[in-house]
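User: Predict structure, ligand 6-O-phosphono-beta-D-glucopyranose.
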Amino acid sequence: MLHTTPGPNFRPDDPGEGHSAPDVGPCALVLFGVTGDLARKKLIPAVYDLASQGLLPPTFSLVGYGRRGWDHEVFVKEVKESVQDYARTPFVESVWQELARGIRFVSGDFSDPSGFRRLRDVLRELDENHGTAGSYLFYLSVAPKAFGVICEQLSQQGLARSGRAAWPKVIIEKPFGHDLASARELNRTIETFFDAASVFRVDHYLGKEAVQNVLTLRFANRLFDALWNAEHIDHVQITMAEDIGVDGRGGYYEGVGAGRDVMQNHLLQLLALTAMERPPSFTAENIAEEKARVLSAVRIPADLSQHSARGRYGEGRLGGQKITGFLAEAGIPADSTTETYAAVRLAVDTQRWKGVPFYLRTGKRLERRVTEIAVVFKASQHVSPSELNSENALVIRIQPEQGATAHLSSKVPGRGMEIRDVTMDFNYSTAFSEESLEAYERLILDALLNDHLLFPPHREIELSWQVMDPIERYWAAAPGAPEHYQPGSWGPASGDALMTRDGRSWRRP
Ligand code: BG6
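Assistant: Predicted complex:
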C-alpha cells in the first residue's frame, strides 16, 4: 500500500497490508442523517460489509441519531432492510446478529441539547455493556448547514475534543462549503470543537480502488512515468458521466449544480493525482503536499466563454425510459439556473505540464455512466498524419469497469501498410482474484484506523475552491439559463464546441 511506505522508495504493495485484517479497536460509529439516501444505500451497507469480512471487532457499535420518533425495533428493522437491499456481500444471519447487538437509536433534533444528552447516555451504556471504550466516530451525513451545530452539541456533552471520550473523531461529508469563504468558516467552526487531526473530510472518489491505482500506474511503471510530461502528452480528458438525474435530491442540488457537486471535489482530485509530482515518499503528508502544490498551479482560462460550458437536461428518453426534465424535478424552482452539466479547460502551470490542456467534464442524464481519465499522447513523429488514423492514449477506467486501456497503433495484417487503432486492456475482474472494498467501506475503515491518506486535508479543499470560485462567479453572472441538452446525449453543443475550438474532440467512452 502506498501510504504505509516510508522512505524514498516506492513499494506498490506492503505484504503486511491488505493480506491480514487490520486491527480496529473497540468503537462506536454514530451516524447523523440515518434516514438519508447515502446512509441507507451506502453507509449502513458498508458497515455490514466490513463486519461480514471480519474487519470490525465484536465490540463495534452502530448508533443512529435522527429526528424520526423511531424506537429501537424500528431502527433495527430499517438497518436490516438497508443491509438486505444494498450490501455488497451476502446476508449472513450470524454476522447480522452480532452487528445487531451493538445497534442503538437516539431520537433528537440536531439543535436539541436533550437529544445529545440521551446520545451521551447511550454511548456510556455501550462503553459499559458493549466494550466500546469511549472511542467514538461521528459520521455527519447531513446538510452542510447542520455540521457546525452538531459539532457544538457534541462538544457540550463532552463528546468532542475536551470531553471524556478517549477517541472522538468526526467524518464530514462533502460538499465542504459553498465557496472558499464558507469552506474556511466551516473549517474554523469544526476545528473549534474537534482537533484538526480527528477531522476526516470525505471525497468518496478517493476510496475507489481504481483511483488509488492512479499513482501506482504512473510511478511504478517506467513505461508511463517516462512519458508523463508535456513533451509526450498532448492533453488530458477527465470525464465523470452519469445516466442518473438528481433522483429526489433536488433540494440539495439546486444552487449547487455540477460544478460544486462534483467538479470542485471528485474531478479536481482526479486531476491532482494525474498531474502531481512524485512525492519523496508515499505517506499521507507527502502525497497531500504534492497534491496541494499541483492544485495551486491550476490556472483557469482567461476567456471562460470559449473554454467552459454548462448545460441542463430537459425531458426526453434514456434507456427506454421517459425522463423528467431537470426543471420538473421536485425541489427545483421554475427559474432555476443550476447546471447539470459542466465542462472546463484548465492548465497546470508547472514545467511538466507546459502547454498541456486538462479538459474536465461531468453531467447527469448523459448517455451512460462512466468515469475515466484519458491521457492522450502526441502523434508519432515517424508516421505521417495521413497514414495515422488513431491516437495513442492511456485510459484509466474508474467505473463502471475498473481497469486501464492503452490505445496503440498497429499494422493491419496483409501486404499493405495500413495502420489501425488497437487496444491493450487490463481489467480488475480478470487480473485480480482479490476483491476491492467499496469506496465507503474503505473510507469508514480508514477513519476507524486513523489513516488520513484517502481524506483530503482542508488545504486541498481550499485550493479546489480557489479554482472553482471564479468559474462559478462567471457562470452566475452569465445571462440566461444553462444550455439545454437531451437526456441520453453527451451534453450541450457548447461542451463539444469547447473541444473543437482547440482542434480536439471528446472521447466517446
Ligand atoms: C456524489 C454526488 O458525490 O457522487 C452525486 O453528490 C453523484 O451527485 C455521486 O451522483 C456519484 O458517485 P459515484 O460513486 O456513483 O460515481
